[in-house]
Structures are given as C-alpha cells and as structure tokens.
Write a structure and sequence with these properties.
Layout (H helix, E strand, L loop, with lengths): L4 H7 L3 H13 L6 E2 L9 H16 L1 H9 L8 H15 L8 E4 L1 H13 L1 E2 L5 E6 L18 E3 L3 E4 L4 E5 L11 E7 L11 H14 L3 E4 L22 E6 L11 E4 L2 H15 L5 H12 L1 H28 L6 E3 L6 E5 L7 H10 L2 E2 L1 E2 L17 E5 L4 H20 L12
Parallel strand pairs: 1-14, 4-5, 4-8, 7-12, 8-9, 9-10
Antiparallel strand pairs: 2-11, 3-4, 6-7, 10-11, 12-13, 13-16, 15-16
Helix pairs in contact: 5-9, 10-12
Length: about 425
Amino acid sequence: MRLTDFGRRYGGSSGTRQLMEDLGSALDGSLDVLMLGGGNPSHIPAVQELFRQRALQIASDARLFAQTVGNYDAPQGQREFVAALVAMLNREYGWGLTQRNVALTHGSQSAFFLLFNLFAGPCADGTVQHILLPVTPEYIGYADVGLSGGMFVARRPAIELLDRGQFKYHVDFKGLCVEPDIGAMCVSRPTNPTGNVLTDGEIDALVALARGADVPLIIDGAYGTPFPDIIFTAARPVWNEHVVLCLSLSKIGLPGVRTGVVIAAEPVVDALTGMNAILHLSTGSVGPALARQMVESGEILRVSRDLVNPYYSAKAGRALRWVEEFFAGCSYRVHRPEGAFFLWLWFEDLPITSAELYQRLKARGVVVLPGHHFFPGLREAWPHRHECIRVSYTPEDDVVRRGLAIIADEVRAICSGADAHDRRRQQA
C-alpha cells in the first residue's frame, strides 16, 4: 500500500497522537498508570450535574431531542447558540458583534487546523505564508496541523526567575517583528503546556503588531476568558477586528461534545463556514444544545467564575506544594501556575533528555509529556526544550501526589548518576 504525502503526514506518529493514545489507554483501563500527561478536565460534580440536568431535559422533550440529534445544523453552527453567545458577549463586554462574527467548529483542534491553513501555506502569487508564534513553548496540537511542512516560525521567550524555585516566560519583544511572509500570529492564553498567562500589556503590544502588519492575532482561549476562565491572575477578555478569539466548551466540562467557538472578522467567519460545509457538512448540535441556556442567561460566566476557577486554583495550589515538598534539594524550577491544568517543570542541566525521562517514568507507571513536543517552529538549537516536562494536576489528588513523588525520585536518581555520560544536548 502506497500512501500519499498527506497519508504519511497525518497517519504517522506525532506528539498529539502520543498524548491522546496514552490518555485513551489510561481512561479505558488498558494502561495501568498514573496519568499525568493528558489534558482531560476534571469531573467537577456541581458542573457535571448542571449539564446532566440539561441532558435529561433534552431527552424528555421529544421535539427538542429530535432537533438536537436528528437534524443537521448550519455549517456556521447552531443559529440559536450563536445568537445567544453574541448577545451575551455584547452585553458583558460591548464588543459590537453580530452573528456574522461567530462560527462553531468541531472542537479547538479542528478550529486551528482550519485557521492555520487559512492563513499559512502556498499562495496564488507563489509566495508561502507562515504562522508566527511570538513566544514558545506552545500547545502540542499546533505542531502537525499544517497541510505543508514548516508552517511555524517561533521565538524564544525571555525568562524571569522568581522566588520559591519558580520562573515565568515573557514575550521577548526585542527584535520581534512581523515579516512579510507572516500570515497570522498566534498565542495561547493561558498557555498549554506552561500555565503562563500573557499580561494585558503583552496582548496589547501583540495586537498593535498585528494591526501594523495587517495580519490577525489568533488568541487560543480554550482555558481562558471569558469562559471557562481557568486563569489565576488578572487578564481581561480581548477582541477586535484584528483578533481571532478561539474558545471551547471542552475545559468547562464538555470535552466529549467537541464544540469550538471562533470569534473573528466577518471574512474569516465566512471562510470557516465554507470550510465546515466541505469538511463536515455541518457542526455538532449536542454541545450547543447542552450549553445554550447557560449562555442565554449568562450563567456560563458564573459557573466559570464560581465553580470552575476556584476548583482548579485549589488543585494548582496543592500540586505546587507537593512539588516543593518532593523536589526539595533537587535542581528544578516550575513555571508559576497562572492558569490551565498543568505544571511545567524545568530540570536545567538534566543529564538525559525529557524524552528519555518520559520513557523512564512510563516504565515506573507515571505518564507525563516530554517538553520537546511543545516548540513547533523553533529552528534554533536550545537545550531548554529537552529539559522540561508537562504534568497535569487534573486527576484525583492521590494520583497527582503519588505521581509527583515518583517523578522527584526518578529525577533525583538520574542526577545522582550524572557521571555516566551526557546525552542532554541531543537536538530536535
């Protein structure tokens, strides 16, 4: 069987495939591990109950049930949900949106496949456009979505060292510019894998760069504001004609319904609608049906603020305390957790690569994600990318605590045997 370039590219191995296969095996019981590598949200009882009651309401109404599962929605997305979202965002933030500014997708991953290939790749005039990532590390799922290779151009961050063994990434604006071959810029806020939240000032500066170059700034808000609001520091919601804001129902507790939201200028939404029609015929109906009443009333903002945010903030605080306990005496740093689901651990001068550490931890029954997957488009050699791992703190506390203890024990053992040979400098 001879595969096309497309088949080899999308049918082979990738960081995203590794993540999701590990996650699926752990959740279905076929892999007996402490799963700290996935991005699955926690099952927050109060939030799950809200959606369960809405599902029961839909199931008990024959007409509503038939509409939800028996009809195609428009390729732009369920019109009632789009209208409710536009009304809520205009009411809360005064953005002046119309329904022509919103499109739904089959989850955030689908949204970024569409958006990145909309703005990057070969053009009719023979030029090739790229996506600029102003700061790395960035989300693992970006790396392989390009229909052509070499889609991304990335910049290293400035690193601020903090107290208590913490650090923080910042956009390094020195020398940052939008070259003519850039079709769009993209940042996640908060960032997966690091939990970094770009400041309002950094976002404003990036918007100004985008406006000056007449390219969009794509903000991946899957964990961010206005919902699900898994942000533990000050951050205001941002949208204007030069911003493409991507939201999701996954992290508020509905990952299985695969519903993404794109808020953008009308030409972008029109293009996404056409792409949805070709690739999917229509978007999914179940997610919008489950969430529409919460959006109409604005309750989705209350649920995010009063239930989701405090839950994850407390989880992050406990995980950070265990890191400080178990890694005491080790050479480590942890990115200040400002949002999302993850701790980003940095072991400077680790004698092995994070990919090797991943394999050693997996052999001990702990699954994390090695850091080298999170630097798409960074073309220069940088040992830092092989010194970090991503650890999820969404599982049960006992799982997180035991997993962190094993990670600390393995790192301590590796560092104590550092005289064997140094393989850390392997480059991606």
